[in-house]
Design goal:
This protein is an all-alpha fold. Helices cover about 45% and strands about 0% of the residues. The longest helix has 21 residues. The protein starts with 6 loop residues before the first helix and ends with a helix.
């Protein structure tokens, strides 16, 4: 019960609430994903930064001494295809943001899972260190993760240590 509240004070509070509401302009754009801006290196764009980050890891994760020229072409073709789909869907910054907070967690020795679900089918996720499972080695399908026919935010399942998850957040 609000019997203890003075009616005059209550009326003043109502008027002030409406006054504040009238001064605020807030618009929600439904149907549009809102991602924070991702700051890239000087001279780079978000798409070029994403490609650069991926390509830097190809020799690390797929050493040329162990792979044939045909396999290296398969890697590049798969990367080009995935980056094309990611670009058409407008999710380049999303991948860089996810890479950033996973790198942060690892730099602080916070346990990070290997990546679960359909994101394991993405060579981009693998090259960025978002997942640790080679999608080519296990013949995993990228289209189960991202599909131009079904435009929705990628769902990357990431597990962090319960004890230190708040540090990542």
């Amino acid at each position: 019960s609000l019997d203890w509240i003075d009616e005059e004070i209550l009326e003043k509070a109502r008027k002030n609430t409406l006054k504040i509401a009238d001064e605020v302009e807030f618009k929600i754009q439904f149907g549009k994903d809102l991602l924070p801006d991702y700051e890239v290196s000087e001279g780079e764009t978000v798409p070029s930064q994403l490609r650069k980050n991926c390509e830097e890891q190809i020799p690390v994760l797929y050493p040329t001494s162990e792979k044939s020229a045909d396999f290296l072409k398969e890697i590049q073709d798969r990367l080009d295809y995935e980056l094309s789909v990611i670009g058409k869907m407008g999710f380049e910054a999303y991948f860089l943001i996810v890479q950033d907070f996973i790198d942060f967690a690892r730099s602080k020795n916070i346990a990070v899972g290997p990546g679960r679900g359909s994101a394991a089918g993405s060579i981009v996720s693998y090259l960025l260190g978002i997942t640790t499972i080679d999608p080519l080695g296990y013949e995993l399908l990228f289209e189960r993760f991202l599909n131009p026919e079904r435009i929705s935010m990628p769902d990357i399942d990431i597990d962090f240590s319960d004890e230190r998850r708040d540090e990542v957040l």
